Structures are given as structure tokens and as C-alpha cells.
Amino acid sequence: MDSQQEADLIRRIIDHDKQLFSALVDRYKHKVYGVIRGMGADHQDAQDLAQETFIRMYRFLPRYQEGSSLSAWVYTIAVNVTKDFLRKRRPIPVDVVEGMEETDKGITPEQSVLEKEMKRDIYRHLKCLPENYRLVLLLKYTNELSYEEIIKITGFSMGQVRNALHRGKRRLKKELENKGELAYEIFF
């Protein structure tokens, strides 16, 4: 869906065609869930926080500025909902991100299994990183957001985003090596 199609969809939702909102939820639900899990919420809390994200998204949809990145706006809401939740509650360590959507990229079943194992290893070790590193890495590599979108979501400067990516990757690689696990060249 391109930005014009998104804008048309949003206008139709705002104009009381509320059933269409499910298309936006379907588009973002797995990635929102992944960001929330990556920030430290357990499975049940991540489901609740994702639902809260979409409730807020629906409520504030009329305030969405056409032409700006919808994905950045959605992730900003998810990050803020999760930060509010984690401030009120002790963070729960990330173990394995479950339920993330797997897309068929034309890879063999063996490659798919290896890719899943790699993701599990990386997510398991993300808990060792400071929150700002973990968040920037998740937004960049899990959700494939641009630097500009990450800046909008986090409020960091370009230098802070680049620094967090660089230091986060370096610390994650070191953590994986210290645990005797592979340093995945694809990621680094």
C-alpha cells in the first residue's frame, strides 16, 4: 500500500467507514507486537499494549498529518504506550519474540529455520542492551524504518540514532561472542 492509498484509507475511516480500520491493524499488528516485546514486555502484556496502541491510533486518527509517515506515527504510539507501561512496572526481560509474522521470501525451509534461530538468539541477547540501543536496533532492523522515521519516533538527533545503532550492534555482537554464539554477519 503506497502513501496515497494509505491517505485514502485513512480519510474513508475518518468518514465513518470504521470496518476499514482492520486493514491498518492487519498491516501493523505483528511489527507493533515485535517492537513492544523487544522493549521488554512479556507476551500477554505485549498483546494488551498492542491493543492499546491500536485504540489510541483509532482515537487520534483524525490528527494524523497526511503526507507524513504512517508507520513512524504508529510506532511512535506503540513506543509511548510501552514506555508509559514500563515506567509503572518493572521491565520484564526479553526472552524470545513469539508470534512475529514470518514472510515468505522465497527461501528454503532450511534457510527459514536458520533465520528463525538467528532471530531468537539476537532477541534473547537484546535484553542486555540499554533501552535506547535496543529500541533503535528494533526500529531499524526489525521494522526497517529509515533514520528520519526513527528520529521522529524516538526524538533522538541523527547523531544519537547513528551512535545508538553503532554501539548497540557492537555491544550485541560482543554479547553474542561472549556467550559463545555466532556473530551473525548478516546483521552486523
Automatic annotation (TrEMBL):
Key words, A-Z: Sigma factor, Transcription, Transcription regulation
SUPFAM superfamilies in UniProt: Sigma2 domain of RNA polymerase sigma factors, Sigma3 and sigma4 domains of RNA polymerase sigma factors
Keyword Transcription set for record: yes
Gene Ontology biological process terms from the UniProt entry: DNA-templated transcription initiation
Domain RNA polymerase sigma factor 70 region 4 type residue range list: 121-172
Domain RNA polymerase sigma-70 region: 24-90
PANTHER family: RNA POLYMERASE ECF-TYPE SIGMA FACTO (PTHR43133), RNA POLYMERASE SIGMA FACTOR (PTHR43133:SF51)
Family assignment from sequence similarity: Belongs to the sigma-70 factor family. ECF subfamily.
Name of the protein this chain belongs to: RNA polymerase subunit sigma-24
Source species of the chain: Paenibacillus azoreducens
